[in-house]
Amino acid sequence: MAIILDGKKLSEKIIENLKEKTSVLIKKPKLAVLLAGNNPASQIYVRNKQKKAEYAGFESILIPLPENATEENILEHIYILNEDSSINAILIQLPLPNHINKQKILEAIEPIKDVDGFTSYNFGRLALGYKPYAVPCTPKGIIRLLDEYNISLEGKKVLVIGRSNIVGKPVSILCQKKNATVIMANSYTKNLKDISNNSEIIISAAGSSKFLTPEYIPHGAVVIDVGINRTDCGLTGDVDFAGVINKTSYITPVPGGVGPMTIAMLLENTFELFQLQKDLII
Ligand code: GUN
Fold this sequence. Notes:
Layout: E1 3-4, H1 7-23, E2 30-36, H2 40-55, E3 59-65, H3 71-83, E4 89-92, H4 102-107, H5 120-128, H6 137-148, E5 157-161, H7 168-177, E6 181-185, H8 192-197, E7 201-204, E8 221-225, E9 229-231, E10 234-236, H9 241-244, E11 248-251, H10 258-281
Parallel strand pairs: 1-11, 2-3, 2-4, 5-6, 5-7, 7-8, 8-11
Antiparallel strand pairs: 9-10
Bound molecules: guanine.
Guanine binds at residues 91-94, 116, 137-138, 166, 262.
């Protein structure tokens, strides 16, 4: 019988802990979220992030910009947030509108305020095995969830499906740091079924609704579903949950698995950046 990896429960525990730590502070950690454009999913994510930040006793501000905002508009806001000593963490919600150069925008964030760990300074340090100011939230949340259930990565064959900067690349780095043998798959990968059937842990961030059917899953596998796909049948993951659950040893649900962990790690990163900045001033 599979064990459900309950990201909702663990995220609540982490957020309660942060709330307790924050309650005794006079100055609170402060997160700034910049949302450019009208992507409906992004609007929901951002609202959730802010709601949880406020619940934890953090301060948070939202900078909404129109779909036709220019790179210069966005950069101006980032420069102001970089300079504002009351702001501890800056999050640029992705995706940005198509006409915006994402690299230019993310690289403008001061690394010590880069709550997603997306700047080349922080990402580079992560890749090199040095400590970054912040580790990307979703990958960090996945590792935390595996740790919580004592699922070791050491010597394990891990398949990561998807090579995005947000999930696939950083989670592969974190798994290797824990001595896993990692295979990265993408949409060009041949014989994915053979590869997945030879894997012990499967992390899917492909963004393709329910494509991981029972034929892809070996008995006893740990399955981590990062997919959040909005379909006519509602929110679905990359995994055919009902179809594969009896083959797995552990599996994350959608919703209630990786999603809430991302938000918990965002708040944890905000808190850690706040602490770091405080230590720098003293
Ligand atoms: N869009 C989807 N996931 C993320 C994330 O982790 N961080 C940011 N900034 N945008 C996202």
